[in-house]
Design a protein that fits this description.
Structural class: alpha+beta
Distance between the termini: 78 Å
Bound molecules: 3,4-dihydroxyphenylalanine
Shape: elongated
Helix content: 40-55%
Number of domains: 2
């Protein structure tokens, strides 16, 4: 019987020692249980009257020890309470500046892409998205670029290691062939998306970037329609005073082909750098869809004609937001991203 008193108090000490205090709530539980006004240790003190006289001293020492252990343990964990207190003080002191709320921002590529889409949807273009892992036929062959065609060298391609026919699309023009094999004219689509090329990463080029493809196929479509459409776009995008110029160029899937530059001017150093000191910046390739491409995709080239264009998004965003280096887009640096 007399042993029980000691066994009980030892169990209490063990309990106190093994109590896990991991946060402010646990600390408060601990305090209520062992140090508060109705704490358990008090109960043990109260029982001292029942303990046989010859054991009272030892029993009393053990209860005191339990109390000391509990107090020390509490003291050792008060940092939990303090951190809570600090936050509470912060919130209740209204003279302090507010805690900044970390709202996300839109990526400049998304902002510019949305603008491009809204401009073209105004004149009846419909947005279409398709595969990024493409086969050679849709990315090259259908677009008049057979396997031995020198134009395939124009784009360093990422092929999938175990599927020699599959690649990461090198341009959004692959969406043209995807769409034309499944749909008959009239076709008026806009295809935005990511494209990939095996290029050395530098301030001006990257192995991954974004393009928007446009395709318009119907009866009696001419180069004049193409030029008018692009002029409309340039004015909406860069302002009514923008100048454009079409320079003859070569693409296997268009004939004739051109590249379009816009005149941005040379207002500051970034303009100089981005336009290489000319004030002009090439923003897209375009042309009249080669009749062979229409035939490859099952559209009668004697009845229909059309134009196509493909534009880069990064460059336009560079110009609009004065971004000097293409690598910023993909680094996810908050200091860059939160400026938009
Ligand atoms: N696909 C071309 C490129 O990535 C851009 C392009 C040029 C797209 C002419 C077109 C086009 O649709 O007609 O460089």
């Amino acid at each position: 019987m007399s042993q029980d008193w000691f066994a009980e108090i030892k169990r209490l000490i063990e309990e106190i020692n093994s109590f896990q205090i991991t946060d402010a709530a646990a600390l408060e539980d601990f305090r209520l249980k062992y140090l508060g006004t109705k704490n358990q240790i008090k109960g043990y003190f109260a029982q001292i009257a029942k303990v046989p006289n010859e054991q009272k001293k030892e029993y009393g020492q053990l209860v005191n020890e339990a109390k000391t252990i509990a107090e020390l343990k509490f003291e050792n964990h008060t940092h939990f309470k303090q951190s809570e207190k600090k936050t509470a003080q912060k919130i209740s002191d209204y003279s302090l500046p507010p805690i900044e709320k970390a709202n996300g921002t839109r990526h400049p590529i998304s902002i510019v892409l949305d603008r491009i889409v809204s401009i073209f949807t105004k004149i009846g273009f419909e947005v279409v998205e398709d595969l990024e892992i493409e086969d050679e036929w849709h990315n090259f062959t259908a677009l008049n670029t057979p396997a031995d065609h020198p134009a395939r060298d124009m784009q360093d391609t990422y092929y999938l290691r175990d599927f020699s026919d599959l690649l990461l699309r090198t341009h959004t023009s692959s969406v043209q062939s995807r769409f034309m094999t499944k749909n008959q004219p009239p076709i008026r689509i806009l295809a935005p998306g990511k494209v990939y090329r095996n290029e050395t990463i530098s301030a001006r080029s990257h192995c991954q970037f974004h393009q928007v493809e446009g395709l318009y196929i119907d009866k009696h479509i001419s180069m004049a329609d193409l030029k008018q459409t692009l002029l409309f776009f340039a004015k909406e995008m860069f302002g009514p005073d923008v100048k454009i110029r079409l320079r003859p160029s070569y693409f296997p899937f268009t004939e004739p082909s051109a590249e379009m530059d816009i005149y941005w001017g040379l207002k500051d150093e970034t303009d100089h750098r981005i336009t290489k000191g000319t004030g002009w910046l090439e923003i897209l390739g375009c042309g009249m869809v080669d009749p062979a491409v229409l035939d490859n995709c099952g559209i009668d080239s004697k009845t229909y004609s059309g134009f196509a264009f493909g534009m880069g998004i990064e460059r336009q965003a560079m110009l609009l937001y004065k971004i000097p280096d293409i690598r910023y887009y993909f680094e996810n640096d908050i200091r860059f991203l939160k400026q938009f």
